TrEMBL record:
Domain M23ase beta-sheet core per the UniProt entry, residue ranges: 261-355
InterPro entries for the chain: Cell_wall_metabolism_enzyme (IPR050570), Dup_hybrid_motif (IPR011055), M23ase_b-sheet_dom (IPR016047)
One Pfam family it belongs to: Peptidase_M23
Keywords attached to this entry: Hydrolase
Stretches the record annotates as Disordered: 1-44, 97-123, 187-223
The keyword RNA-binding appears for this protein: no
EC number(s) recorded for this UniProt protein: 3.4.24.-
Organism: Streptomyces albidochromogenes
Entry superkingdom: Bacteria
GO MF annotations, alphabetized: hydrolase activity
Enzyme class (EC, first level): hydrolase
Protein name: M23 family metallopeptidase
Composition bias, Basic and acidic residues: 204-223
Length: 366
């Protein structure tokens, strides 16, 4: 390895003594002012090694380098391997007044006995190798750090701090991701539940609407069917008079009727107004009937009897008649106060019913 040429060997006064720039001849030798030359200050490549002198202390560059490394190593933030080699050449006379390396904090332990007992270039090189290879401080350095090449306490601490920070950050990121996923899942579940509820409500509304439409359709169909039925009935049934005025209704109370209640329906009309058969049937009887005056009983095919009372005349007294055939005329015979038709309706078992309701049940308007 290349190194600088040694500086001129001259005698120097003790460190700190006054110097005369002129040539001096003394008891210990002659010395003169030393001026650097181009060769002595030429840049040096590689480590600068100087033979160790006086009690194992190497040349000034080694001492200064060790001092710097010791000062830095005391802080636990660097190693000798992290720093470039320092090439400084100083007069050997200065080294006489430098302290012993073993007295420097953190340096004495770095210098081996072999290095202290050696001399010259080999001792200086051994010292430099020890300084370069050993960590300045091993506090807090683990075996794993040593295996990974991190033998500097400061770097190891920094690496562990960074590792812990990365682990904490990774844990925080993982926790945040889990929380985000949980929140997303809860949000998705809530949205799905909301959509399901909306779909169920919509389905229920559609079902209600369908049922309503179905009921309306059924009602409309029933109404139409009833209208058709009544139309057919109306075609086969007829009102007993074309023009009239209702004067008494079925069940009406009064002293004029022997039973205390009216048993039929009174259609007031002028005497002689034609009376028609409400439906096709058979004339069961025709004649005088006491308080009913002249009466015609028309029996229908189902056994229902229709009584025409207080007639002035009877046109048909027997046989079959059709719907709308004139069978008599309005009169005032029997127990009456005026000309009118007293109409009664009796079921096949003989019970009386409301003629108005019965006529409406046949599709007729009363």
């Amino acid at each position: 390895m290349a190194s600088n040429s040694p500086a001129p060997q001259t005698a120097m006064p003790p460190y700190g003594a006054a110097r005369d720039t002129s040539t001096h001849v003394g008891g210990e030798g002659t010395w003169e002012e030393w001026n650097p030359t181009e060769d002595s200050v030429r840049p040096v490549r590689g480590r600068h090694r100087v033979a160790k002198q006086r009690g194992g202390l190497g040349r000034s560059s080694t001492v200064l380098g060790v001092g710097v490394i010791a000062a830095v190593g005391a802080g636990g933030i660097a190693t000798a391997q992290d720093k470039p080699a320092i090439s400084i050449s100083l007069p050997d006379a200065i080294t006489d007044s430098l302290p012993d390396p073993k007295s420097l904090p953190g340096v004495g332990s770095l210098m081996s006995d072999d290095a202290e007992s050696g001399s010259g270039v080999q001792a200086g090189a051994a010292n430099e190798a020890v300084v370069a290879a050993a960590p300045l401080s091993t506090a807090g350095v683990t075996t794993a750090d040593a295996r990974q090449g991190t033998t500097d306490a400061g770097e190891a601490l920094r690496a562990r701090i960074l590792q812990q920070a990365e682990q904490q950050q990774a844990a925080a990121d993982a926790e945040a991701q889990v929380a985000a996923e949980k929140e997303a899942a809860e949000k998705a579940a809530a949205e799905a539940k909301k959509q399901q509820s909306a779909a169920e409500a919509e389905a229920a509304e559609e079902k209600r609407e369908a049922e309503k439409k179905k009921r309306e359709a059924e009602e409309e169909a029933a109404r139409k069917a009833e209208e058709e039925r009544l139309a057919k009935l109306a075609a086969s049934y007829s009102m007993p008079l074309s023009s009239y005025t209702l004067t008494s209704t079925y069940g009406q109370s009064g002293a004029m009727w022997s039973s205390g209640q009216h048993t039929g329906l009174d259609f007031a009309a002028p005497t002689g107004t034609p009376l028609k058969a409400v439906h096709g049937g058979t004339i069961k009887s025709a004649g005088w009937s006491g308080s009913y005056g002249y009466r015609i009983v028309l029996e229908l095919p189902d056994g229902t009897e229709v009584w025409y009372c207080h007639l002035s005349s009877m046109t048909v007294t027997s046989g079959e008649v059709g719907t709308g055939d004139v069978i008599g005329r309005v009169g005032a015979t029997g127990n009456v106060t005026g000309a009118h038709l007293h109409l009664e309706v009796h079921t096949p078992d003989g019970a009386g019913v409301d003629p108005a309701a019965w006529l409406r049940g046949k599709g007729l308007t009363v």
